[in-house]
Amino acid sequence: MTERPAQRTPNRQLAALIAEAGFSNAGLARRVDQLGLEHGLDLRYDKTSVTRWLRGQQPRGTTPALIAEVFTRRLGRRLTAQDLGLDACAPVYAGLEFAAGPEEAVDIVSGLWRKDSGSHAELRRIAFTPAGLVVPSRDWLIGRADERVARGEAPPRVPAQGRPALPQQRGRGERAPGHRVGSGDIAALRSVAELFRTLDDAYGGGHARQALVRYLEHELEPMLRGGYGEQTGRRLFAAAADLTRLAGWTSYDIAAHGLAQRYFVQALRLSQAAGDRAYGAYVLVTMSRQAVYLSHGREAVQLARVAQQGVGGSAPPVVQALLHVAEARGHGVLGEVRACTASLVRAERALEAARPGDDVPHWARFFDEAQLADEFGHCHRDLQQFRAAAQHAERSLQLRHPGFARSRLFCRVVLATARLGLGELDQACQLAAEAAGQAAEMRSVRAVEYVKDFERRLEPYRDAAPVRGYRDKVAALG
């Protein structure tokens, strides 16, 4: 890799930290290369590279942040590139680490928010790395809620009233440094989450993602750095986990997969600070879904099983159904018919056990018969069981609320794929044309990719009249 021209001043800060850590030059280079692999980077540093850094040369791109992370893990305290005498010219490429405590968790996630709300387009091009799933899921499984999250003492503040402000309506500087978080603040965070969730469902993750990230930076970060008692702090971290997961979800929807992965890891850590084990399991399910989409079936199954193990039998039936169906999707991608079927049966039985009076978390209320039918449809499609896939997809479309426009689009493509598999070319093309029209009105890379996947399946029939008609309709969409 190309290095910057050598500086005249030796890097004594880096030399001191190498001595403290007990690294050899070759050992440091090897650890940087290994950490690079976790982040999807193929680095080729050696002891000569480290010698050049010690003489004053500055490594380019992501490397300063990676070197700082190597020392942070070794020495057990947070170190930045500047602490090592290096230029922090790269965006946040860290973010896969599972923080030791609440303060560090806030530092990491707020760093992601700030970089993401800026002009760092390269942040959205970071690669997804399956290896980066192992440590966070393990640490969550064996970890416990933080003993204390309360922070600071500050004068009481009148709770926020009325509709929560959007990012452009309130600036960061308007919130005093000693701000005392109250119940009105928590209610506002919940309302904002529902607002952005509704926009995401209807118009795709790209529609309001940047506005969400700016809200996190300008409104949520000052709250997390403000003052709050123990009970309010838990609720604050729970709201922060939910909003951070949503930032990851919208990033995932626009194919910013490495960034989404980092948001999910940090949402998992925030859920631990909140003491909300069930929500942590939901975050793991979200990570599992991303792994399914990226065809990492084995990792998807493992994440779903960690989630199940983490909550045991304490979760409501609806949540149990959600966890089992996530495992089923992983097995489906792997083509494991028996394991997939067994997980689907467990999910179906769990949802049947749900009762109207059950205390279902707000984030799990979307999981109903329509969603279960949708999951069945996807699994049967992946297993090439097209008749069953068509039956379940049709049922889901009949039951699904119109507000879940993107989910309905996905299900329509699943139905089109099933019809194609059954040899019903006319119906398949008609359904897919409807989906393509909807995708054109959304800001969702996933929606576009669903349609493109169907089009790849059409290739053997490219000269048939229905396919030519389909292509003409799609071309007319521009």
Summary tags:
4 domains, globular, mainly alpha, 478 residues
Strand content: under 5%
What share of the residues lie within helices?
A: 55-70%
**How would you classify the helix and strand content by structural class?**
mainly alpha
Taking Cα atoms only, what radius of gyration do you get, to the nearest Å? 24 Å
Strand and helix order: HHHHHHHHHHHHHHHHHHHH
Low-confidence stretches: 1-7, 154-174
Number of strands: 0
Can you describe this structure?
Helices cover 63% and strands 0% of the residues. By secondary structure, it is an all-alpha fold. The protein has four domains: 12-84; 96-151 and 176-274, no CATH class; 276-367; 399-478. The two termini are 41 Å apart. Residues 1-7 and 154-174 have low confidence and may be disordered.
